[in-house]
Amino acid sequence: MFRWIDRFVRNDRTYIVPNGAGVAFGFLFFILLFMGAALNRPLLQLIGFMIAIPYLSAMVQSNSNVKDLKIRILESPLAPAGATVEARVVLEQSGRGTSRKISIRVRGDSDSGRLMIERVAPGEPVEVRVPLGSFIRGFHPFPDLVVSSGHPIGMFHTWKRFRPELGLWIHPAPVGSLPWRQEPAKEEDSRLEYREHRQVGPGDSLSRIDWKRFAKDKERLFRVYEDDPARKVVLSWEGVRHLPVEEALSQMTRWLLDAERGGVEATVDAPFTRGPVTRHSMKAHLRALASYGEAG
């Protein structure tokens, strides 16, 4: 998981429209005022004004519920193709009031994609994980987010759209079963000092498996030595270039993630990215795999 810049997101103006109940309530208000004036019935006019008070109050509260909300994007996974990407989003109330019954979703998503937040008070930011959907390999603009509310009594729908000026890097799905290439040992195992056992991984030499331990416990373990050259592997494009492009990229991604998670000392050797596999270099390697073949 890689951190993005922590910053507020630019937002549009706040929009508010009456829903079905709001339209009916407003229609009733105007009918009562019209009939009271036409028939000279002050009581009807008074009832109309009494109805208007909660109607206008609900409109003001619904607008205030959303108007002063701000959001910040904290971070998002650098996700594989086809997986659901989630973004860490923080909602903050910059006004004096407390926002209630707030929903946030990706623009264009159905109601099933909404996340509900019960309360956002001043000085009490709320963090949520917003599902952004799944994407194909490549670079994609961050989708617009919509924050909305119908609180307090559901007669108005108020919303505001946020436009993050960020992007999503979607790397290939980590799929493949080819072994990676290992650098040849520079010394015989007998001249190296034993250090530990570890689980057998992709591309491990059969000669390094502790067969005596396997015969006893039926557990395949790999013998690791101090300054063990067998732990150094090369994630080479030459080893996958015979595959279709997307399969080759998926295999490279699988190697890369396996090496990083397993703590294997490895180096990437490809025309579009080169260098050691470390926690700090993973972002650059995965972005290179994500953007391979794209113009510019």
Features:
17 strands, disordered N terminus, 5 helices, four-stranded antiparallel sheet, alpha+beta, 2 domains, elongated, five-stranded antiparallel sheet, about 300 residues, Immunoglobulin-like
Walk me through the structure.
With 296 residues, the chain is an alpha+beta fold. It is 27% helix and 33% strand. The chain folds into two domains: 2-17 and 66-170, Immunoglobulin-like; 181-291, no CATH class. It has helices spanning 20-38, 42-67, 211-217, 245-262, 282-291, and strands spanning 2-8, 15-18, 69-76, 84-93, 99-106, 115-120, 126-134, 138-141, 145-149, 156-162, 167-170, 181-182, 194-199, 221-225, 233-236, 266-270, 273-276. Strands 2-10-9-5-6 form a five-stranded antiparallel sheet. The longest helix has 26 residues, at 42-67. It is elongated. It starts with a strand and ends in a 5-residue tail after the last helix. Residues 1-7 and 185-189 have low confidence and may be disordered.
